[in-house]
Design a protein that fits this description.
The chain is an alpha/beta fold. It has seven helices and nine strands, in the order αβββαβαβαβαβαβαβ.
Length: about 230
């Protein structure tokens, strides 16, 4: 198994890389980038796309897709267990389809539970303006509000906003992120709670799909999905 960084496997480098390594199959990890490596670039080499959108390169591509709604349900159950007075959700700093899905799914669950849910979404603004806007927004949240951040980077923004607004976590507000990035969650003050995505299961699905394509030339099916660790 050969693992290559995003930089070393960009489209302009791919042909040379494939010629050198001569892989029997490839898994393209898409969470941080690599939405630009179309199946055509791999020729006859079987390829599976991991952690990508359902729409990436159409329906004929083998994909492993994160089930955002399943992760949101796990987050909501965790936050609801503390019987909060209200809910709020904070979206990613840029408009992203995965963030919008999580924002809407969380708000729907809160409303279905008979509660209210404030939404802090992305706007076209500078980082400094977003920080000011978020601090003002956090200051207005009711006491004992449960705040869901769509990922850990966003949760760190919320922690900083709470410090500027004089809101204390977890005594005043509760906060939950997604991804459980160790360097963020373990080193934040207070420590950040986060939903762990089942990346190991996602990798297993991707390897299984690739093995089927290599040995049995199996046509692409519906995307295989994975969610949080339960």
């Amino acid at each position: 198994i050969v693992v290559k960084s995003e930089r070393s496997s960009r489209p302009r480098h791919l042909a040379k890389l494939l010629k050198k390594e001569k892989p029997v199959g490839c898994i393209v990890e898409c969470s941080a980038g690599h939405r630009d490596l179309s199946p055509d670039l791999f020729g006859e080499i079987p390829v599976v796309y991991l952690d990508c959108s359902r729409s990436l390169f159409g329906n004929q591509v083998a994909k492993v897709v994160h089930d955002g709604k399943q992760t949101v349900r796990a987050a909501f159950r965790e936050l609801a267990s503390n019987l909060p007075a209200a809910y709020a959700v904070v979206g990613y700093r840029e408009r992203r389809s995965w963030s919008t899905l999580r924002e809407r799914a969380f708000r729907t669950l809160a409303i279905e539970a008979g509660s209210t849910c404030e939404v802090f979404g992305a706007e076209e603004e500078s980082a400094a303006k977003r920080r000011r806007r978020m601090a003002e927004w956090v200051a207005r949240l009711p006491p004992k509000c449960a705040v869901f951040a769509v990922n850990d980077d966003t949760a760190m923004e919320v922690l900083s906003a709470c410090t500027r607004a004089g809101r204390r976590i977890p005594s005043d507000l509760t906060l939950l992120g997604v991804d459980n990035v160790e360097k963020l969650c373990e080193n934040s003050v207070p420590r950040l709670s986060s939903v762990q995505i089942d990346s190991e299961l996602a990798g297993y699905h991707a390897a299984k799909l690739l093995d089927e394509k290599i040995h049995f030339d199996v046509a692409a099916k519906e995307p295989v999905t994975y969610g949080p660790m339960m």
